[in-house]
Amino acid sequence: MAVVIVCDAAGRPLADRDVVVEQRAHAFGFGNIGFDFVGDDRPARLAELWFDVFNTATLPFYWSDFEPERGSPHTDRLRRAAQWFAGRGARVKGHPLVWHTLAPAWLGDLPVGEVEAAVRDRIKREVSGFAGVVDSWDAINEVVIMPVFANEPRPNGITRLARERGRIATVRLAFEEARAADPSATLLLNDFDMSTAYECLIEGVLEAGIRVDALGLQSHMHQGYWGEERTRAVLDRFARYGLPLHMTETTLVSGDLMPPEFDDLNDFQPPSWPSTPEGEARQAEEIERHYRTLLAHPSVQAVTYWGLTDEGAWLGAPAGLVRADGTPKPAYETLRGLVKGEWWLPPTTVRTDQAGRVVVHGFLGDYEVRCEGRTTPFAITGAAPAR
Amino acid sequence: MAVVIVCDAAGRPLADRDVVVEQRAHAFGFGNIGFDFVGDDRPARLAELWFDVFNTATLPFYWSDFEPERGSPHTDRLRRAAQWFAGRGARVKGHPLVWHTLAPAWLGDLPVGEVEAAVRDRIKREVSGFAGVVDSWDAINEVVIMPVFANEPRPNGITRLARERGRIATVRLAFEEARAADPSATLLLNDFDMSTAYECLIEGVLEAGIRVDALGLQSHMHQGYWGEERTRAVLDRFARYGLPLHMTETTLVSGDLMPPEFDDLNDFQPPSWPSTPEGEARQAEEIERHYRTLLAHPSVQAVTYWGLTDEGAWLGAPAGLVRADGTPKPAYETLRGLVKGEWWLPPTTVRTDQAGRVVVHGFLGDYEVRCEGRTTPFAITGAAPAR
């Protein structure tokens, strides 16, 4: 809620006058990945669908793709994508600076001391190089499993680093380098492990004095929607640390669910995994329930849905909000209806009181008020009730 | 291995002489619980069986039993039991100083600040009161689950403490008080959670500078023997921290296994859970495999079997090494055959060389050499190969 006093050009309150107020942007982070827009050929219709709902783009900085050959990073390609999003008003997030999966092959044989130096250099280079465009980073990803990750013939360099130095030392170096390279960036610890293991890691990291700006909670629900009760329990457990929560990777499939016996989602990649009418109806219902649960929790400040289109989706899963043929699924319309409908203040005529005041109720974000041809921006900020 | 020079009373080496060497004690901790000997009526036959295999007694300091009424602890009863064990040459361990389960009812309503004060007082009182008799303590038990433990209508005082202060602060206060009360005691962090959660907790605790003397790993195998591969993997993961490992709570049942769907072992307590001939044969085979695996690992310094007799065993499970009727099961004989047979040096005649030397190969521990009516103690100490 905001109380706005509408004044004329000379600063005199305009009493008893019709004015139009309108929301311009959400403060809440409604995110999606921007992977489809990294190449220079950016599909226009898909971009329209993206910007009609989302305001925060997660871009892929997977090290093995970003710098397949040591010393030749694809910085320019990523910078063009980041600037493209930023130029259209989106916030941009980089994912992830340190991760054992998709570590570059050339890291494989280096001694741990050299791995550490390479990791520090890479963090420094990306975070300072993208400062001003990328404003938040998954500083480090999936640390719980990092030192014991064993899905590969030989442990990768990052796993060796985390095993030898310890999880907390590895977290510290990631945050330390990223913080130094861009003190204004929002730095996240991100994990898929929602068990007590992640709690224990967080407590150790915070006790060690490492400043974490937000906790990233993944929620790839390929095996089924968590439901409100479990979701709230997870949020409450991680809200205990007094840090903002970002739901960094959220998916709900619009086809068959992945069977529950797969512990590692990567182990299930059927040749074909179609989107179905029943699946799409379920996905639409669940996305609404899930986003309502998340938005109602005072600690949640951002939700990133993991994928806009089924085309090229992770695991080939029908987890997108848009079908492979480019048409929006019901879940897209549902989410749009919330983000730009129920949770959005469209142009609305209200009348000022005797003191020139109007009271605006709306979600946190940027607004404007128009009166007699003049447009003035204002914001609703502050405590949770103002949402 | 030790090289012993046998001398006469004047200190002159006795060359080319028959001497008898004999082991007196294991350095390795072969433990069992001493719960059956806490009352003043100590079953003599059971005691014989206990001392014939074990050298380390775990005594119950469960707070709700120890001090059911605030200010009236059963210190004397426990002291008599501890002294009884110590007087018979056993080392004595106290279990546990801090634990959410079996927290006293009177803690229930106290504000967290008063819970903390009561916990500190209790640790100080027990550890200083038993110094010189109890030489090791589970300083804190099951911290991974402690703040989220929810198997009760209202959270107990210890859970509230751990939730409000955090796991590491709670670990710190336990170790801090216990260390101050008896700087010579061996203090353990103990848990049943063998997942990455316990790793993360340990890393946080060590990063926070808390000195832990040994890591306690429970292994109640009511749902089946882990097998060598899993056991070694667990040991290797926790050996990474460079601390001695104590297998603090080891059980193998000699009857039907508990069905795998029970996550909390406490949830399965059938009206009758008999020991069976097939179960006893399996238990004997598995105890041998398990102890061989544990003793072969360089980090393991103690193994405590959880229960001597089926009479009054935890969960009513046939997990003892002695049947309820007092007769030893095959597993008892197997374990005795290892601890006092294969891994033990009985009185053995050897001949000194020209310099009066004999070379003694044996497990770490106390030995003696006898020659011409004189008995001299010596020890095999040091690195793992000497075992």
In short, what is this structure?
The structure is a homodimer of 387-residue chains. With 387 residues, chain A is α/β, with parallel strands linked by helices.
Descriptive tags:
homodimer; about 375 residues; alpha/beta; TIM Barrel; eight-stranded parallel barrel; four-stranded antiparallel β-sheet; 10 helices
Can you describe what's shown?
The structure is a homodimer of 387-residue chains. By secondary structure, chain A is α/β, with parallel strands linked by helices. Helices cover 33% and strands 22% of the residues of chain A. Chain A has one domain (28-347): Glycosidases (TIM Barrel, Alpha-Beta Barrel). Chain A binds chain B through residues 144-145, 147-148, 163, 166-169, 193, 195-201, 203-208, 237, 240, and chain B through 144-145, 147-148, 163, 166-169, 193, 195-201, 203-208, 237, 240.
Strand and helix layout:
Two copies of one chain form a homodimer.
Chain A: E1 2-5, E2 18-26, E3 29-33, H1 44-53, E4 56-60, H2 63-66, H3 75-87, E5 91-95, H4 112-129, E6 134-141, H5 157-165, H6 167-181, E7 186-191, H7 196-207, E8 214-221, H8 228-239, E9 245-252, H9 277-296, E10 300-305, H10 330-342, E11 348-351, E12 357-360, E13 365-371, E14 374-380
Parallel strand pairs in A: 3-4, 3-10, 4-5, 5-6, 6-7, 7-8, 8-9, 9-10
Antiparallel strand pairs in A: 1-12, 2-11, 2-13, 13-14
